[in-house]
Amino acid sequence: MSLTKEDVLKLAKLARIEYKDEEVEKMQKELNDIFKHIDKLNEVNTDNIKPLIQINSDILELREDEIKVSLSQKEAMKNSPETLEGLLIVPKVVGGNE
User: What's the pLDDT at 32?
Assistant: First the structure.
């Protein structure tokens, strides 16, 4: 897989990142290097390798649920730039017309 300059610009737009022209070329090279490395990893024979379920063999100790005092809705919203009827108002990110 190889990304074009247009692919990098599209990804940047989706991530809301602005690049200068020389940065786009650098990012294109870096991303393509990452994909080349992934392609190499995909060539490794893993037929006899068991999937990793957990990173270590420690046993997870469960605890009882405890009800604790938390922030009220008003306290949680006091630093929010915009709210409406107790809900956070955020800018539209997906499917915008930009």
Answer: 96
